[in-house]
Amino acid sequence: MKRVLSALILCFSLFGFSQKEGQENALFTIRGNIGIPRVIGSQMFRTSFAGLYEGNLSLNVRLFGNFFVGAGYQNTQFQNNKFLKFQYFNASIPYNTRLLSSGAFIKLGYDKFFSDKGYATFSLNSGIMLNNYFNVNADTSLANRPYGPTGFSAPYIQPETSLNFIVEKRLAFSIMLSYTTMFYKYDPKSPRFAHFQEVKDSRNRYFMNWINIGFGFTVLLDKKTKE
């Protein structure tokens, strides 16, 4: 959590930098990010799953100034926590249940340059996420009935900020931070986890949401350079 706070302070302190006069980003950009999501919303969801990876890719066009709009695809995967095991006589068999989420989104954003080679990006992704649980164990406990759906869809929003450094004429690398809220309440009956005492004792007051810290890149197309 200290790393999360440090990243937040670093990124939002960039608001204090003055915009470099006359500096504009490329007309067209391809932006991608990858990181490891950390569940921070529903305690029940956090008790059940841990993030494996999250990545997204978007195609964008600059509208005016350094405001841009784009469309993209996101893929996120979670795996059940290790303590979730199937007890068979004197043996414990680990679960291998996964939640795979795929989303299409619209991106709205703004690039703020603080030097010739550096800029901060503040954006908002919003779209629909399709979710599916895989390797669901066929538990027949009453706690898991009636069975929840192993697939569902839900809208989501994702504020995102990044610190970008141009390393070549048409390429920049970045450190990014995002916060995803999926407007769907976690149902432990769907992955068949409702019979675990640790899950039952957890709170489930909020939507499914998570934070992601990772790395990214931007391909700068039609980038104008000074003579």
Walk me through this protein's architecture.
The chain has 227 residues and is mainly beta. The chain is built from 3 helices and 10 strands. It has helices spanning 2-12, 43-48, 197-200, and strands at 28-39, 49-64, 67-80, 85-88, 91-94, 98-113, 118-134, 151-168, 171-182, 208-221. The strands form 2 sheets. The protein has an 8-stranded antiparallel barrel. The longest helix is centred in the N-terminal third of the chain and has 11 residues, at 2-12.
What is the mean predicted local confidence, pLDDT? 89
Q: Name the structural class.
A: mainly beta
Q: What is the rounded distance between the termini?
A: 45 Å
Order of helices and strands: HEHEEEEEEEEHE
Assess the beta-strand content as a share of residues.
over 45%
Largest sheet, strands/sense/barrel = 8 strands, antiparallel, barrel
Overall geometry: elongated
Question: What percentage of residues falls in helices of 4 or more residues?
Answer: under 10%
Give the strand line-up of the largest sheet: 1-2-3-6-7-8-9-10
Please give the number of β-strands. 10
Q: Report the total helices.
A: 3
